[in-house]
Design a protein that fits this description.
Blueprint lengths: L2 H22 L5 H14 L1 H14 L7 H12 L1 H34 L3 H20 L6 H12 L4 H24 L7 H27 L6
Length: 221
């Protein structure tokens, strides 16, 4: 495994561990989140929007079922407000992940990858493939935060990161919110089919990219 995938794997395991711990403690389960959003809806649509934004921002620190939250947002407040909430939450999480990693990520790189040449290789790989990784990062809930952090660590230009982040998350959040808005308890199929199609599409893309990375040598020049 390349140094880049090794570091990303360690980061993914960390985010996954937060999900496991939270579920073991009975925190942030999907049923609990749905109950919170239902209570928020009884107060106002704005309360639902704030709750969705907060939950998706929280995903930067504790892995949560992001796609389900986006769909629930659309279900409770409609496609437009649901999309606004979903995109705002993911944007906050991405920008904060980038900023925190740009400030403190170097320590993690030095801890995980001891050899300086391999650290240079890691940065070169992400400079070469980082935009595509961000565009395919919705393969699973953990990857968006990992790629945002890697963008900061590798000092990707912020405007480049932001454009790539928006390019994937603008349509992704809209599709998710819209699917939630046309789903009901009696007919959940739009949400189920959308979740299946999105996950399959991004998993295939990420799998192809990972295979390509493992097979392609990278110059550090």
């Amino acid at each position: 495994m390349t140094s880049l995938l090794k570091l990303m794997g360690i980061m993914a395991l960390f985010f996954a561990s937060t999900f496991i711990v939270a579920n073991a403690m009975g925190w942030l389960s999907l049923d609990q989140i749905e109950s919170w959003l239902a209570q928020a809806q009884s107060l106002s649509a704005f309360t639902v929007v704030v709750a969705v934004v907060f939950l998706l921002f929280l995903d930067l620190f504790i892995a949560v079922p992001t796609l389900s939250i986006m769909m629930l947002g659309g279900y409770f407040v409609g496609a437009q407000l649901g999309w606004l909430a979903a995109f705002s939450g993911t944007l906050l999480a991405g920008v904060c992940g980038y900023a925190l990693s740009a400030l403190y990520g170097e320590k993690l790189v030095n801890l995980v990858v001891k050899d300086d040449a391999k650290r240079q290789e890691l940065r070169a790989q992400f400079r070469r493939h980082g935009i595509l990784m961000i565009l395919l990062s919705r393969a699973m809930p953990i990857l968006p935060e990992v790629t945002a952090c890697m963008s900061g660590i590798s000092r990707m230009r912020f405007i480049t990161f932001l454009l790539a982040w928006c390019a994937v998350n603008l349509p992704y959040t809209f599709i998710a919110a819209y699917a939630g808005s046309i789903s009901t308890l009696e007919n959940p199929m739009p949400a189920i089919l959308t979740a299946t199609a999105l996950t399959a599409f991004f998993w295939i893309g990420w799998g192809l990219l990972k295979h390509f990375l493992l097979k392609t040598p990278v110059s550090t020049q």
